[in-house]
Write a structure and sequence with these properties.
With about 200 residues, this protein is an alpha/beta fold. The protein is built from nine helices and five strands; from the N terminus they run αββαβααβαβαααα. The longest helix is centred in the middle third of the chain and has 14 residues, at about 110-125.
C-alpha cells in the first residue's frame, strides 16, 4: 500500500502546530532542531504523513552536524505520545546521513515515566547509537550551558513549568503534582505572545 502523500493544506497544518522548527545554533555552531512534544497530535497525525512531512520540509535542511532540543514539558500519553511502533517507524525512515549528522539530543524536562520508558526500550527502539546521544536536561539553566538563550524560542508554559520545578523538585520524580499551574493559572489570551522574555533574555 503506497504511503500517504501530504497535501499542501496538511503540510501547512503541521507547520502551524509549531511542532518542528530549525533555527539557531548551539555554542558549538551546530544547527538546532527544536521539537515541542506537547504540540504533537498523536491521535490525528498518521505515521506516513509525518514521514513525508519530515522528508520534504525537515531532512533536506539537516545536511550538516545538528542537535535536537526536544521539549517534553506537559506531554501526556493519551494526548501527545504516539506509541512505540509509531516512534520506531518514524525513526527507521530517517535517512542514514541525517542520523550520522545528529550529534546530541537535549531532552528537556524528562519525567519519571519517560526515563523508565527510555531506560527499558531506548537501546532497542533507537538503533545506531541514538540512545547514547541522549542528554537529559532537567532545568532550562542546564540547557543554556550548551545553547545560547537567544538562539531558541522557549514557550511560556515551559518557563512556567521550569519555575515550578525549582520550587517543587519532587515533581521531577512524579511524587508531587504541579497543582499551581492546573488550578491557579489565569486564562491566557491567545493573542498574547507565547514566548516568555524570562526564557530568552
Amino acid at each position: 500500500m503506497p504511503e500517504e502523500e501530504p497535501s499542501p493544506d496538511q503540510i501547512k497544518l503541521i507547520h502551524k502546530l509549531n511542532l518542528f522548527k530549525i533555527k539557531g545554533r548551539d555554542k558549538r555552531g551546530r544547527k538546532i532542531l527544536r521539537i515541542i512534544g506537547k504540540n504533537f497530535p498523536a491521535r490525528s497525525l498518521t505515521v506516513d504523513l509525518l514521514k513525508k512531512y519530515l522528508e520534504v520540509k525537515i531532512f533536506p535542511k539537516l545536511e550538516r552536524p545538528f542537535v535536537i532540543v526536544y521539549i517534553h514539558t506537559d506531554v501526556h500519553k493519551s494526548d501527545n505520545f504516539p506509541g512505540i511502533s509509531y516512534l520506531r517507524a518514524v525513526y527507521d525512515a530517517i535517512p542514514v546521513t541525517v542520523k550520522q549528522y545528529l550529534e546530541t539530543v537535549y531532552f528537556v524536562h524528562p519525567d519519571l515515566q519517560s526515563r523508565i520508558f527510555l531506560a527499558t526500550f531506548g537501546r532497542f527502539l533507537f538503533t545506531g547509537g541514538l540512545y547514547a546521544k541522549l542528554n537529559y536536561v532537567t532545568r532550562l539553566a542546564y540547557l543554556w550551558e550548551h545553547v545560547r538563550r537567544n538562539a531558541i524560542e522557549i514557550p511560556e508554559f515551559v518557563c512556567d513549568h521550569d519555575e515550578d520545578l525549582e520550587y517543587r523538585p519532587m515533581m521531577d520524580y512524579g511524587l508531587e503534582s504541579d497543582y499551581r499551574r492546573v488550578y491557579e493559572s489565569p486564562v491566557v489570551d491567545p493573542s498574547v505572545a507565547m514566548y516568555s522574555m524570562r526564557c530568552i533574555s
